[in-house]
Amino acid sequence: MKLPYYNTPDFTPQFYTSDKDATENITHQIAAFGMTDQHGNKITDADIEGKIHIANFIFTRCGSICPVMTKHMKMVQEVFKNNNEVVMLSFSVTPWMDTVSRLKQYAEENAITANNWHLLTGSKSEIYTLARQSYFAEEDLGFSKDSTDFLHTEHILLVDKSKRIRGIYNGTLQLEIEQLIEDINTLKSDTTNQSER
């Protein structure tokens, strides 16, 4: 089954039978960014170019939804850790506290070992703007919020190789993560079939 495209923060699904139609109608893409991961490496939008990626927004001192989301992201890690077509991005929403060394410690504490899973820190305004304007992380509610309003969301976003949003999942629900894994595989087979045409 074809996955929908999401062009607006209200997450109204749009379906297209061909990639050409989608390219003509879907104008929203993830914007350029530059962050630093838990290994001190610079990660930019160039690193997700031509790859499927998933994104979520966490902070290492969060005691509510973040530990559950991280546990569920590890299910994705298990399936795709050696897959160079898939990238996992966890952006910190408290980058002033989540330094590179703190993110590295968090990765070690949570057995985050995949080379394609980046815990990211950077400028607060860049992260918040990216979350709300590019990933629609808080849907309509967050799209028009000021970048100083605290960001806290359980959403995990699935983005295709052309940086278009293709899915939104509740990261606290295991069933939704199982669906996410299935949808990543659907996207992978979609792009394989397109390149064979």
Explain this structure to me?
With 197 residues, the chain is of the alpha/beta class. It is 37% helix and 20% strand. It contains six helices and nine strands, in the order ββαβββαβαβααββα. The radius of gyration is 16 Å and the shape is globular. The two termini are 18 Å apart.
Characterize this entry briefly:
The protein is of the alpha/beta class and 197 residues long. The chain has helices at residues 19-25, 65-80, 100-109, 124-134, 139-143, 174-196; strands spanning 5-6, 13-14, 34-36, 42-44, 52-58, 86-92, 117-120, 155-159, 165-170. Strands 7-6-5-8-9 form a five-stranded mixed sheet.
Question: Mind sketching the topology for me?
Answer:
Layout: E1 5-6, E2 13-14, H1 19-25, E3 34-36, E4 42-44, E5 52-58, H2 65-80, E6 86-92, H3 100-109, E7 117-120, H4 124-134, H5 139-143, E8 155-159, E9 165-170, H6 174-196
Parallel strand pairs: 5-6, 6-7
Antiparallel strand pairs: 1-2, 3-4, 5-8, 8-9
Helix pairs in contact: 2-6
Question: Which key terms come to mind for this protein?
Answer:
single chain, 197 residues, alpha/beta, five-stranded mixed sheet, two-stranded antiparallel ribbon, 6 helices
Tell me what portion of residues adopts beta-strand conformation: 15-25%
Instruction: Report the radius of gyration as a whole number of Å.
Output: 16 Å
Mean pLDDT: 90
Which stretches of 5+ consecutive residues score pLDDT under 50? none
Number of helices: 6
Distance between the termini: 18 Å
**Count of distinct strands:** 9
Helix content: 25-40%
Strand order of the largest sheet: 7-6-5-8-9
What is the chain-wise order of helices and strands? EEHEEEHEHEHHEEH
Main β-sheet: number of strands, strand sense, barrel status? Answer: 5 strands, mixed
Tertiary shape = globular
Structural class: alpha/beta
